[in-house]
Structures
1.
Amino acid sequence: MDIKIGSRGSDLAVKQTEAVAEKLKLHFPDDSFEIVRISTTGDRQTDKTLQSFGGLGVFIKEIEAALLDGRIDMAVHSAKDIPTQLQDGIGITAALLREDRDDALVSFGNIENVKIIGTGSARRESQARKIFPDAEFRQIRGNIYTRLEKVKSGEYDAVIMAKAALNRLNITGANVMDLPFICAAGQGIIAVETAGGRMRKYTELINDAAVMAELTAERAFLKYTGGGCHMPCGASAVYENGEITMSTYYHCGGNDIILKMTDADPELLGKIMAEKTIKSAEGK
């Protein structure tokens, strides 16, 4: 059988999709897996902030359309790019290959003296301001290499990136400082979407149950707080011995609300932590 897998066209997206295809090939050696690169609105419009034209969904809208009309059989995404509200008929049926979930400051000069920092994430900026109170934060868009070139050219002194992206693309030659942030929901996870229950025999064999539990908890927190790319909101869950321990971050009214809880039910954990967070934000 010839399986078509949809992917954004960036080097990082394709590398992640290739990793999924390799996993599938191990289980289904007689099938072929073709990667279909799909241009998305988010990739084309790099001169605007995500908030100005649709938020996270701009990275997957066209791919999900191809999934629904049958042009592709499954889609591979960075899990943090998937909105909490999925289109009808589409589900996340596999979560796997979680890389380093942390954030990092990347520079090509003296990393201790950065003055202009690039990031398009409200979550990253609000946490970074505690570490770099004197820095100027500017919006930055584009793929990994484009952002790094803007640092090399001197337009920015540094940029904040996911360590998973640096590792998967084997970026070298830069000065990297690990940042003690609570990550974005799904950061470092590769997620597979399918439509209408199709392809389940494929995705159930590559799904990592522990990673799926972490993703479910993190996305639940995001969903019930109403957070997203426009909100300073993060969630980092760790599955161990049948339980999930999650740390969450929410910035509201100049205050950081940080919680840590453990439960066996990932969806319930995310919901409870979101409710506690909202109550705290409302002063209750």
Note: The first helix runs from residue 11 to 27.
2.
Amino acid sequence: MAKERVVVGMSGGVDSSVAACLLQRSGYEVIGVTMQIWQEEDPFDIEDNGGCCGLTAVEDARRVAQALKIPHYVMDFRREFKSSVIDQFVDEYVRGRTPNPCIRCNRYVKWGALLEKSLGLGADYIATGHYARIRHLENGRYALQASATLEKDQTYALYSLTQEQLAHTLMPVGDYTKEEIRQIAREAGLPVAKKPDSQEICFVPDKDYAGFIDRTLEDPVPPGDFVNVRGEKIGRHKGITHYTIGQRKGLGLAMGHPVFVAAIRPQSNEVVIGEHADILAPALRCSHINLMACADIGEGMPATAKIRYNHRGAACRLYKTGSDGAVCRFEGPQRAITPGQAVVFYQGDLVLGGGVIEEALR
């Protein structure tokens, strides 16, 4: 009987490297692929700023593949990455929203484009080094389950994967802690065992999102007015792309007490400044719902919702609106519900699904 073939997305980091190692030990035919997504002609520019997708990442992945004695290829996904991730990232910030590009990359590049190409090459699965687990439930659906180590859990950024994508995905790293992964890498003699994790958005390694957007646009985003919740002008801002809901630092306003970004109004080019109470809300409306553990949202379905990656989660009830929308009502008010970010719903450690936050409801 022929071995099942799996294409492992290898970023050159320890997690994806160990994923390839574990799958090889489990008897799969493993092929390593590194996705070329950098846009610059000279990818060394990315390396100099600490990015994770330049030539050093390719070389690290190739060295791991040689150690494991598996084939390794570099596939060009620059076009898909620009259209599905970068262009949407810029557009959302210009609209006064705060996107999560990693979620878009997972859905449309790492799974959309890579999975399609891998299946076309005869692979049965793709695999990544994400800290998450996949479960095939009794109701026939596939769902993500939180990883064995909650502090590293990455299910929030993976909520948008489809049933078809989950059915053809393996995530072996999700059963281990980070230290266990590094120990496996050391014992296997992998050259990236001590390599530090990458924390930045790969195409904005210096974290200057507004600068990146201004360099991308033909016309930079103009300055405008800070206003209070009553609409009174209280200062000038640098451009709406410099701000996000709930932001307190870097405002440049001498108010004598802490104030926060309460709203961003792209139509009038205003950034609204308020008190802490002004960034609290008991509910939100979301769109583009993707469901995992269940096929539909029941009226008043109980869940736990995370409104950002590092949010601890809050008890709520879900109410379906239209074909792909929902209202999420929390048991208590939540801080800085931010349009453009994801809201992800859980029951226990299973992902029910999630969507894109459109607005806070008060």
Note: Helices lie at 14-25, 44-48, 55-68, 78-94, 101-120, 163-167, 178-187, 209-216.
